[in-house]
């Protein structure tokens, strides 16, 4: 069985405050997106990649990915869920019964973690996500962004940081995501669509260095982790 891959990469990365979307920033001589795709290519179980980029994206054509035959470009949307759905709509669920969704800005995921996620999900027949247990004390806030105060401490037991990849049966994810978006539900990741539908999602423990590059300091940390790996 070969698993299809969807990478939503239509975001503009406003928090990075760079001159281009974060997935096209340079990391050790390549764009972050190129690192991410090449990392996934090391997993034998994974097949073609559907890459959802912005309609007017001026950067993708200049990357090494543009001419690779196993990478299919689709037009992404304004939100992550729209981009993921665009990729899903292009995939034949009979040919690829499972689909793996991964953030464009997570270039440090370990192959062993991906394979662990695949085995757990396929063996159980249930979709799942990579995640790490919360380590820090968690606070719930009150007030405005400029004048925020602690409301109370949140018990961190049983709390997890959701990561990607996230792996689900292709037809199931497409149907649930469509229904959730049509209903106006807030979908922050693929697992939240399954949760909205009342369907189970496995939590598979992954490495904490599978960071998402979101802010400028993340890029420095990613360079360090990449050197270590």
Helix count, per DSSP? 6
**Uncertain parts:** none
Strand order across the biggest sheet? 5-4-1-6-10-7-11
From the helix content, strand content and strand pairing, which structural class follows? alpha/beta
Helix content: 25-40%
Radius of gyration: 18 Å
- How many domain units? 1
CATH class: Alpha Beta
**Ends: how far apart?**
29 Å
Considering the protein shown, what is the CATH homologous superfamily? Spore Coat Polysaccharide Biosynthesis Protein SpsA, Chain A
What value does the average pLDDT take? 94
Strand content bin:
25-35%
Biggest β-sheet, characterized? 7 strands, mixed
Keywords:
229 residues; alpha/beta; Spore Coat Polysaccharide Biosynthesis Protein SpsA, Chain A; seven-stranded mixed β-sheet; globular
Please summarize what this structure is:
The protein has helices at residues 32-40, 80-89, 111-124, 170-182, 190-196, 216-228, and strands at residues 3-9, 26-27, 30-31, 46-53, 71-75, 98-101, 128-133, 138-143, 148-154, 160-169, 202-205.
What do you see in this structure?
The chain is globular, with a radius of gyration of 18 Å. The protein has a seven-stranded mixed sheet with strand order 5-4-1-6-10-7-11, sandwiched between helices. Strands 2-3 form a two-stranded antiparallel sheet. By secondary structure, the protein is an alpha/beta fold. The two termini are 29 Å apart.
List the helices and strands and how they pair.
Layout: E1 3-9, E2 26-27, E3 30-31, H1 32-40, E4 46-53, E5 71-75, H2 80-89, E6 98-101, H3 111-124, E7 128-133, E8 138-143, E9 148-154, E10 160-169, H4 170-182, H5 190-196, E11 202-205, H6 216-228
């Amino acid at each position: 069985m070969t698993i299809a891959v969807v990478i939503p990469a239509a975001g503009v990365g406003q928090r990075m405050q760079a001159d281009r979307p974060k997935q096209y920033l340079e990391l050790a001589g390549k764009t972050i997106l190129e690192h991410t795709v090449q990392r996934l290519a090391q997993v034998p179980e994974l097949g073609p990649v559907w890459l959802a980029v912005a309609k007017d994206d001026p950067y993708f054509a200049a990357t090494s990915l543009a001419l690779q035959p196993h990478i299919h470009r689709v037009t992404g949307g304004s939100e992550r869920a729209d981009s993921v759905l665009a990729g899903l709509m292009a995939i034949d669920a009979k040919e690829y019964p499972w689909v793996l969704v991964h953030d464009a800005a997570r270039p440090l995921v370990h192959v062993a973690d991906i394979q662990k996620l695949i085995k757990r999900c396929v063996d159980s027949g249930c979709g799942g996500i990579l995640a790490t247990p919360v380590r820090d004390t968690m606070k719930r806030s009150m007030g405005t962004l400029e004048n925020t105060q602690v409301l109370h401490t949140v018990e961190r037991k049983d709390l997890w940081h959701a990561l990607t990849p996230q792996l689900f049966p292709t037809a199931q994810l497409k149907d649930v995501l469509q229904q959730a978006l049509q209903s106006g539900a807030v979908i922050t990741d693929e697992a939240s669509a399954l949760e909205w539908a009342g369907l189970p999602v496995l939590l598979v423990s992954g490495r904490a260095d599978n960071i998402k590059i979101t802010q400028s300091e993340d890029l420095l940390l990613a360079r360090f982790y990449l050197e270590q790996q």
